[in-house]
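Hypothesis: this fold can be encoded by more than one sequence.
Test: take the structure tokens below, design a sequence, compare later.
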């Protein structure tokens, strides 16, 4: 039964008097007989004489089902008696709703505890949860009592994030000015004549460079709207679990409104965009995708690269980088010309974890004849590498391996791909951009959105359509030209695919950039020497088939 008890007290100190018993009203004495001084509490005379003196408290005694005392709660600091009474009633209502009211756990501590027990999502998702908690949530609302977290606290957090964004952006612009100033001073030093003048300019450049280095270390990223939506999703997941565990009353994050987020859509590197990029270095979007012509140019360039078969597989079939790194020979069927995607490797703080693919991403990918031939070639190479390595061989069973049989780190593939794109002088895309390009190639070859969704391992076709809204219509034009070419007509010149710009050239010392009108494929890359050659776990069956083919052909 709820019984409201409120009282007023202060923090004043003074002579103490007995408040009850036979000595009521008599002074409290120390051992030496002097009057004891201490906290007056509710006995301060100013509490009755001065209206604003002290603050109000509540006391709540909660009994269990047997009528025995279970919890004693006391809380103060309220400005009015009504505020104390209202807070007391809220605690009682929370208790009646099944919440744990006898706890002082901070919200940040709860979030850490929640993340530790979050096992129903991918490891990479949990890592992102922890990042949001550490960088964004805990610094702002981590010190609030978990039971007291409310919608206003979350709104205040996002307002603070937005204020911080203004500061971060201003600092980034400042660093950009310092970068230009440093470069100007370097150019002035290089162009100067006279030893004394050059020394002065050189010292000025070094001073600017040191200041730039200091400020670059202070740089932070702007927390954009899309990231803010992810932070709110983390909070919503945590509070949703807390509601189900009866640790909070409501999922307050669901009630918080944020500006609409527009995820970046993939954009094709069309000839016009390429021309603009070569002139200014401007990249029109955050997610860029090659046309099939550029993909072909890249494959021609890396034909001698040790990982050519991997690039070819990713460019045409579009697996995620972690899925390609984790592909085992046991999931490769060269007779059926297919591979089964059933595993992936995720990188969290550069540590590798093996896990299943994303939701509904387990799938079978058909191989084209060229990919199948490259897989067979990889199997033969791994037999040779295994014999050469001897006892040092690591029998990982993976398809794409290094000289000792160990697998590749996904981050290595990302950096390696970036370097190859630079060497090929092709418009920049990320390694994940090859996956987007595979969707365009599939669409251009006649696959419908549902088939593309299945190929990429999307759990709904909506994801495919939302992601490739901008890209697929442009790729569709290639199919229109292909359809026109199929029908023979007299007196009509056969249509050709629009030429892609070839790498630009510049005249030294002029800054002039020449953009050829006709494309030409890049020169194939030489076999790299700085990167480890892939080796592998030998596939004797594939080697046997190759030998049988040679025997049958009389070679």
């Amino acid at each position: 039964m709820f019984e409201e008890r409120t009282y007023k007290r202060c923090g004043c100190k003074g002579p103490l008097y007995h408040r009850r018993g036979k000595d009521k009203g008599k002074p409290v004495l120390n051992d030496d007989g002097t009057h004891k001084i201490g906290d007056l509490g509710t006995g301060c005379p100013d509490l009755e004489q001065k209206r604003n003196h002290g603050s109000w408290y509540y006391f709540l005694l909660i009994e269990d089902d047997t009528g025995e005392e279970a919890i004693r709660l006391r809380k103060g600091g309220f400005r009015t008696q009504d505020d104390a009474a209202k807070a007391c009633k809220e605690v009682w209502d929370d208790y009646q709703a099944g919440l744990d009211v006898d706890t002082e756990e901070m919200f940040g501590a709860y979030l850490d505890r929640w993340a530790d027990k979050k096992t129903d999502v991918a490891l990479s998702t949990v890592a992102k949860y922890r990042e949001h908690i550490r960088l964004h949530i805990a610094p702002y609302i981590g010190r609030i009592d978990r039971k007291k977290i409310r919608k206003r606290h979350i709104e205040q957090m996002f307002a603070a994030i937005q204020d911080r964004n203004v500061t971060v952006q201003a600092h980034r612009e400042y660093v950009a000015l310092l970068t230009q100033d440093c470069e100007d001073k370097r150019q002035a030093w290089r162009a100067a004549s006279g030893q004394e003048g050059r020394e002065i300019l050189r010292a000025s450049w070094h001073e600017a460079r040191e200041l730039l280095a200091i400020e670059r270390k202070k740089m932070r990223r702007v927390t954009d709207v899309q990231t803010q939506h992810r932070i709110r999703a983390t909070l919503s997941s945590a509070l949703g679990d807390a509601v189900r565990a009866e640790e909070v009353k409501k999922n307050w994050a669901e009630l918080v409104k944020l500006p609409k987020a527009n995820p970046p859509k993939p954009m094709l590197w069309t000839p016009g965009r390429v021309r603009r990029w070569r002139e200014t270095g401007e990249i029109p979007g955050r997610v860029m995708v090659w046309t099939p012509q550029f993909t072909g140019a890249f494959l021609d360039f890396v034909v001698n690269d040790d990982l050519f078969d991997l690039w070819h597989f990713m460019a045409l079939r579009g697996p995620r980088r972690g899925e390609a790194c984790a592909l085992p020979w046991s999931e490769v069927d060269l007779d059926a010309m297919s591979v089964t995607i059933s595993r992936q490797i995720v990188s969290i703080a550069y540590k590798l974890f093996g896990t299943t693919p994303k939701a509904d991403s387990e799938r079978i990918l058909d191989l084209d004849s060229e990919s199948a031939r490259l897989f067979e070639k990889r199997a033969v190479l791994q037999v040779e590498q295994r014999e050469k390595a001897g006892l040092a061989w690591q029998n990982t069973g993976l398809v794409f391996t290094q000289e000792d049989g160990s697998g590749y780190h996904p981050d290595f593939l990302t950096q390696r791909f970036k370097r190859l794109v630079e060497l090929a002088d092709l418009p920049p895309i990320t390694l994940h951009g090859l996956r987007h390009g595979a969707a365009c190639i599939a669409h251009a070859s006649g696959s419908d959105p549902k088939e593309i969704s299945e190929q990429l391992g999307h759990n709904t076709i909506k994801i495919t359509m939302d992601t490739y809204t901008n890209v697929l219509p442009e790729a569709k034009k290639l199919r229109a030209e292909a359809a026109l070419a199929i029908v023979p007509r007299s007196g009509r010149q056969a249509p050709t695919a629009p030429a892609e710009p070839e790498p630009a050239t510049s005249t030294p010392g002029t800054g002039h950039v020449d953009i050829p009108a006709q494309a030409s494929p890049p020169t194939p890359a030489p076999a790299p020497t700085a990167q480890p050659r892939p080796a592998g776990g030998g596939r004797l069956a594939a080697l046997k088939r190759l030998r049988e083919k040679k025997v049958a052909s009389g070679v």
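Residues 159 and 366 are 49 Å apart (CA to CA). The radius of gyration is 35 Å.
Hypothesis status: open.
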